[in-house]
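comment on this one:
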Amino acid sequence: MNWLRPFERKIVYGALIVALLIPLFHLGQPASLDSSGNVRSGGYLALARQEHGLSQASLGEIDPASESMRLATLGLRGVAANLLWTKANEYKKKEDWDNLSAALNQITKLQPNFITVWEFQSHNLSYNVSAEFDDFRYRYHWVKKGIDFLIQGTLYNAKEPRLYHTVGWYFGQKIGRADEHRQFRDLFRHDRDYHATLRPYVDIESPEACSRHDQLPDNWLVGRLWYIKAQAIVDSGIRPLRGKSPLVFHSDRPKSFMNHAEAIEEEGHFGEVARAAWADGHREWMEFGNREIPSSWGINIRLNDYARVAEDVARWEAQLLSLAPQAREQIEKERREALTDEERQLLDTPLEQRIMRFTESQWQKVMEIEARMRISDEDICRRVPSDKRVDAERITRKLTSARTLLDRIDRYRNQVNFVYWKTRCEAEQTDMALQARQLMYQARRDWDRGNLEKTKEDLDRAWDLWAQLFEQYPNLKEDLAATDLKRSMELYRLTLSQLGEELPVNFKLKWLFDAISQQEAVTQDYVPIQSSPAPSGEAGAKP
């Protein structure tokens, strides 16, 4: 009977193996997709990978190179990826772009869900490798390769909003802000082959992607479509936003409209086309202001709530002061009487004289005095009669909370220059701004043609319009003049020099002229601005 025991054991082992194969089959069966790309069937693990965005291949779509590398590492993919990442950093320091590209491509095969490597390699191709070529058309080619690489990363990480946002950033900033941006934008508008490549991902021929004046795809507007895809993932709650400020993340979408408006005006398109572009920017900027933004304080805030919260602060302040009408004046009088004669003299010194005469120690002393003189809500609350103290304490708590919220909203608004861009969109839609922009454009064309008198005439008319705009929108004065108007003022200064004329006595923007005059002579730095993009057939054309 002993000879039966091995045979019996084999039967038992075989039955156990068959029994184990059944759950393994249900757990590990690969996923298959239907014609629309949705998961049709698959095992538990395959469905879980699909649900969490961790599957790199479906049945019939396996990447042989990637799978072979993973098998060859014997489960040490993370270690291998770390070693390759170290080598990639070394190659970057040595500016060895070929080996850097090879190392990063290997990492994507080992760890397709390693988000940083997709961003790193796309930046390498679009910024570092493209800069190695002199012809702008070759540079444009490598910019596209970097974007294509990043789009490939979105296929492996379909639920990662940061990658979609970075694609939008490259379409906008790399094509629209590069030194060759005029040539890049022209090439992109007429690049039908690349439009066909992008068609499966965004509606490249939709009105939202095309400029109104020529009905061709615009890089800023196409980038905005990718921002929308990124926002949709975040808003759906599928994947939280990681590694990027929510404030900046959501502000880039409306800024695309504004950048588009600036670009078409630089290229000579004004009137209703430009007005509509700025109106689009204003509309989306206000929508951004109404969006709930997660803050670092653990609460959501809306930038447009600033006015409402400021009204709450004013209302609570009035209610608190109504309980002790003379409290603020009494406290201020008592604290001023407690100051020494020297301290009162320092405190009463006008700001202009402080700037001219005060030493560092005097400034520190004044700051200490002003801190002691500052009256808080709690100081006023303590002066309220005892029978009204409970109401005063309640109002003080609400006032403190409202002040805190107001301060936080103000900080976030300042980070994205919210008020400036809101006002800028409003101002740029006015007839004065549109006419001033067109006059500055005409002046650059007149300069290129050598017509100095007409250049001066156009700019004089433009400055009169800008002076009126600054009176109507004073908070535009510093930022807009320091950036957007600077080059036109340099052209005006150079034109006057060539004509042998002095600045008009009644020049309304003398403060801007003086600021430019203090810089290095523009005759050495000024490059005449072309009035239209250089044709893509001109090899080696410079911006």
Summary: The first helix runs from residue 4 to 28. The first strand starts at residue 32 and ends at 33. Confidence is low (pLDDT under 50) at residues 57-62, 520-543.
